[in-house]
């Protein structure tokens, strides 16, 4: 599965694993604005539109690019949209409102078939999938309109939103367009508005007009995989999904740290790719809204394309025996393996005997560890008992000392009076119960100059 991204400097990178097409342009006048795959179903052709009015065609194959040709539309016509039609026809929309219809050969030679102009400004051009002759365009101060390029006439035109409370009409700046079915058009504006139009009524104002934030919307994307859901990215890195029936937010895709210039959805898988000024390609799972892969690309990105190719299915793990992969094509090979490469009964018995012997040794070691642990616990208990006996002997020895001191006092007749006096003093020195401390309350004086009255409560 490939993801092709284009940078502001004009370099295009193809992640498989990396292919680089073109050269870095130092001038901002040669900035890459848009990209599209060619007519080949294998997506081997790549078309690039530049700010200087140049359209480059590449033949890409496994990371190797070869220039097929160029189309020069004029230095004042910045290429905003490139759309392929049947019979190798090419529609190129320029910022000044002109639309060029080209015929391109397989060798890369281009011939202009027709030049059209339906408005004074064009920022986006989308082709109706149900009718390739119907295109939707919109730009700055140019409301969204639908034209038939074969009949060269307007089929449908939108009406601006109602005036505000001061009677001022809202500004118009269509930055991106998505056609939803045959009767709805969703637009993102440079004034951070999401508008949903009902194409069944001509000159009808937007059915839903919601101001999402304060920052311009740069890219929106709709996928048939998710009905009634639109994904919108703005100039500060916000990527959110909304319900086009009521304009309510469904969820956000977090991780971008700079302006998101372009987003794309895989044709068949629930994957979303985003690129922008933070120099990263991020791939999100649309269902869980989690980032599943991030690639640093070193340059500021301006466009991204998801290939229709799906990732390969993971290979089944091979069966392993004794560390070596063994695969059997049929039952006969398996039987031959069992007959020729099997283990004899004697070897089998020896193996089991060895296993039993090893198990017996392990059990013996475990029993020894348990016995040693029990013996250690018994020794510790005996040591504790000896310490207790020593403590009891010391206590008895102290009691004997007290008895000897009493006998010595009785034999000494000269100190009888002193001992009696000591006994009386010891009786007097008995601990005295603590009395309650008196509480002192200060009562306010009756007069300003009177003394404080102290009342003691014992």
Q: What does it look like?
A:
Helix content is 20%, strand content 39%. It is α+β, with helices and mostly antiparallel strands. It has a domain at 3-306: Methylamine Dehydrogenase, Chain H (7 Propeller), CATH 2.130.10.10. The strands form 9 sheets. The protein has a 4-stranded antiparallel β-sheet with strand order 3-2-1-28, with no helix packed on it. A 4-stranded antiparallel β-sheet has the order 4-5-6-7, with no helix packed on it. Strands 8-9-10-11 form a 4-stranded antiparallel β-sheet, with no helix packed on it. Strand 26 (280-285) and strand 27 form a beta hairpin. The longest helix is centred in the last third of the chain and has 67 residues, at 345-411. The protein starts with a strand and ends with a strand. Residues 317-342, 404-416, 423-430, 432-436 and 447-458 have low confidence and may be disordered.
Remind me, CATH topology of the domain at 3-306?
Methylamine Dehydrogenase, Chain H
Task: Give the uncertain stretches in residue-range form.
Answer: 317-342, 404-416, 423-430, 432-436, 447-458
Estimated helix fraction: 10-25%
The count of helical stretches stands at 3
Structural class: alpha+beta
Keyword list:
four-stranded antiparallel sheet; WD repeat; 3 helices; WD40_rpt; alpha+beta; WD40 repeat-containing protein; WDR74/Nsa1; about 450 residues; about 20% helix; Methylamine Dehydrogenase, Chain H
């Amino acid at each position: 599965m490939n993801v092709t991204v284009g940078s502001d400097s004009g370099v295009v990178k193809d992640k498989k694993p990396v292919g680089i097409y073109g050269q870095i342009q130092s001038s901002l006048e040669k900035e890459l604005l848009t990209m599209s795959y060619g007519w080949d179903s294998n997506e081997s052709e790549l078309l690039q539109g530049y700010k200087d009015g140049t359209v480059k065609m590449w033949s890409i194959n496994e990371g190797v690019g070869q220039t097929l040709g160029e189309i020069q539309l004029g230095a004042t016509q910045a290429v905003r949209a490139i759309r392929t039609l049947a019979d190798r026809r090419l529609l190129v929309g320029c910022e000044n409102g002109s639309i060029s219809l080209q015929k391109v050969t397989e060798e890369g030679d281009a011939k202009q078939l027709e030049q059209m102009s339906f408005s004074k400004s064009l920022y986006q051009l989308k082709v109706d999938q149900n009718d390739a002759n119907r295109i939707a365009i919109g730009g700055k101060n140019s409301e969204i309109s639908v034209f038939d390029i074969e009949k060269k006439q307007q089929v449908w035109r939108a009406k601006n939103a109602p005036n505000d409370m001061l009677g001022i009409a809202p500004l118009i700046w269509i930055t991106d367009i998505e056609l939803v079915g045959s009767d709805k058009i969703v637009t993102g504006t440079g004034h951070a508005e999401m508008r949903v139009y009902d194409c069944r009524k001509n000159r009808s104002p937007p059915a839903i007009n919601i101001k999402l934030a304060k920052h311009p919307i740069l890219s929106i994307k709709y996928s048939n995989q998710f009905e009634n859901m639109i994904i919108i990215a703005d100039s500060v890195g916000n990527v959110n999904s909304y319900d086009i029936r009521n304009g309510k937010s469904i969820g956000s895709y977090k991780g971008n740290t700079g302006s998101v210039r372009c987003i794309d959805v895989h044709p068949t898988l629930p994957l979303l790719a985003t690129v922008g000024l933070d120099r990263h390609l991020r791939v999100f799972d649309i269902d869980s809204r989690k980032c599943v892969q991030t690639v640093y690309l070193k340059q500021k990105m301006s466009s991204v394309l998801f290939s229709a190719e799906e990732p390969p299915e993971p290979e089944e793990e091979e069966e392993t025996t004794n560390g070596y992969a063994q695969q059997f094509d049929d039952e006969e090979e398996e039987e031959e393996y069992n007959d020729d490469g099997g283990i004899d009964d004697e070897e089998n018995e020896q193996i089991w005997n060895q296993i039993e012997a090893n198990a017996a040794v392990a059990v013996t070691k475990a029993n020894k560890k348990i016995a040693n642990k029990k013996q250690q616990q018994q020794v510790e208990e005996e040591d504790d008992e000896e310490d207790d006996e020593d403590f009891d002997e010391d206590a008895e020895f102290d009691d004997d000392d007290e008895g000897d001191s009493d006998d010595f006092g009785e034999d000494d007749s000269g100190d009888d009076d002193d001992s009696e006096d000591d006994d009386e003093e010891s009786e007097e020195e008995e601990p005295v119960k603590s009395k309650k401390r008196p509480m002192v309350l200060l009562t306010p004086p009756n007069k300003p100059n009177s003394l404080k009255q102290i009342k003691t409560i014992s």
